[in-house]
Predict the structure.
Amino acid sequence: MRQQIDLRVHDRVALDEIELYSEILSAVATAERPLTIDEIDTVLGVRREDGTGRRESTPQ
């Protein structure tokens, strides 16, 4: 008997990147001017860790 196989690929990283991209597109669409780096960081849920310019995820 032939077995049904799910051939869809589930790539968690790619899906997460698509979600982040859609968040940026939504923010840009509603903005009346170009977003600043800080505004983009807010949309993506990251914050500056310290004066080094490094960023880390904002706890949710």
